[in-house]
């Protein structure tokens, strides 16, 4: 017969659990040290910066407003605290501690942060917020680029100097043409018919040589071709010989000719990536003495044997650069 003592609930040996007091339960975990929390957490977290104990919700330095934020990271890396750098251990900038702001004097927006990446202006070498990223919004054309050497010649100044030289050359050529068209010049032509005939023959030979050596798209029909001398100012190209002979279609725009000529002469063409005129390329028509508009047609503006020059920083286009 079974022993009745084994079924007695008052028998301590028959119990399958151990009774615990309230103090024993609290000794397993710890209370959160946040003033308004004090939650008992059985798996508490310890802050390595302030050495405090916190619950899951307040375990981060930001959540419990750690008085020594970033201290553990500085001890680990051996970097002393700096007021100009972020105190967060991650490599991401913090909008609360980062001190770089938009370069526009009237703007206080922080840039190069996680919420506002900032935009660098290549012309003035400054960084702006999204609102002031455009050149006209931060008055870029009137700013001296940061890091520019005093007295350094800008690309625009070089382009304008080259343009002035071409203007003078074109003016002299126009004056010479007017002198040969005077009545006295006509009498001289009559007496020197043989020499003028020889000059015409040499011009025809030069044109034939141009057509033979000119390069271009073979798909352009011969009757629609315009043969040109193309040059680039020395400050715009990396080519050893910045000149060439090319033919283009009469139906092409000047903008398309510029793209093709820049590629052939190894000229950096950033017209579609810049706002101002300092880095923009323009086409100068030597015989007409003017800058050509991008939308003009080749057949309307140019003739066989003409010369065009690629210049940088000389825009916008001017209708006539050579006075009559």
Structure description:
With 324 residues, the protein is of the alpha+beta class. It has three domains: 28-87, AN1-like Zinc finger (Zf-an1 domain, Irregular), CATH 4.10.1110.10; 100-142, no CATH class; 168-192 and 206-312, Ubiquitin-like (UB roll) (Roll), CATH 3.10.20.90. It is 26% helix and 13% strand. It contains seven helices and eleven strands. A five-stranded mixed β-sheet has the order 8-7-11-9-10, sandwiched between helices. The longest helix is centred in the middle third of the chain and has 26 residues, at 155-180. The relative contact order is 0.08.
Please give the domain count: 3
Order of helices and strands: HEEEEHEEHHHEEHEEHE
- Number of helical segments with 4 or more residues: 7
| Amino- and carboxy-terminal Cα gap | 137 Å
- Tell me, what's the shape? rod-shaped
Determine and state the CATH class of the largest domain. Answer: Alpha Beta
Give the uncertain stretches in residue-range form: 82-97, 181-191, 318-324
The proportion of strand residues reads: 5-15%
Q: Roughly what percent helix?
A: 25-40%
Largest sheet: 5 strands, mixed
Strand order of the largest sheet: 8-7-11-9-10
Number of strands: 11
At CATH level 3, the topology of the largest domain is: Ubiquitin-like (UB roll)
Radius of gyration: 40 Å
The CATH superfamily of the largest domain turns out to be Phosphatidylinositol 3-kinase Catalytic Subunit, Chain A, domain 1
Q: In terms of structural class, how would the helical and strand content be classed?
A: alpha+beta
- The whole-number mean of residue pLDDT values reads 74
**What CATH architecture of the largest domain do you see?**
Roll
């Amino acid at each position: 017969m079974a022993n009745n003592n084994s079924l007695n609930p008052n028998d301590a040996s028959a119990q399958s659990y151990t009774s615990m007091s309230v103090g024993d339960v609290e000794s397993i975990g710890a209370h959160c040290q946040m003033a308004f929390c004090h939650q008992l957490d059985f798996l508490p977290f310890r802050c390595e910066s302030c050495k405090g104990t916190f619950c899951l919700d307040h375990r981060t330095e930001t959540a419990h407003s750690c008085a020594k934020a970033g201290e553990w990271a500085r001890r680990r890396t051996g970097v002393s605290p700096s007021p100009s750098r972020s105190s967060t251990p991650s490599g991401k900038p913090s909008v609360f501690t980062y001190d770089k702001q938009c370069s526009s004097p009237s703007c206080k927006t922080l840039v190069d942060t996680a919420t506002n990446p900032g935009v660098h202006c290549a012309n003035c070498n400054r960084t702006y917020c999204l609102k002031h990223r455009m050149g006209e919004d931060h008055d870029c054309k009137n700013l001296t680029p940061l890091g520019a050497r005093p007295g350094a010649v800008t690309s625009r100044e070089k382009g304008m100097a080259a343009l002035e030289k071409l203007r003078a050359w074109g003016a002299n050529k126009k004056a010479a043409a007017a002198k040969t068209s005077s009545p006295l010049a006509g009498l001289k032509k009559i007496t020197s018919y043989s020499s003028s005939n020889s000059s015409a023959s040499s011009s025809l030979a030069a044109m034939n040589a141009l057509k033979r050596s000119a390069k271009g798209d073979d798909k352009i029909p011969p009757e629609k071709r315009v043969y040109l001398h193309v040059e680039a100012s020395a400050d715009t190209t990396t080519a050893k010989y910045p000149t060439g002979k090319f033919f283009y279609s009469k139906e092409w725009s000047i903008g398309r000719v510029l793209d093709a000529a820049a590629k052939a002469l190894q000229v950096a063409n950033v017209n579609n990536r810049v706002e101002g005129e300092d880095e923009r390329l323009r086409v100068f028509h030597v015989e007409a003495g003017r800058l050509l508009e991008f939308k003009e047609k080749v057949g309307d503006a140019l003739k066989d044997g003409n010369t065009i020059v690629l210049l940088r920083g000389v825009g916008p286009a001017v209708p006539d650069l050579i006075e009559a």
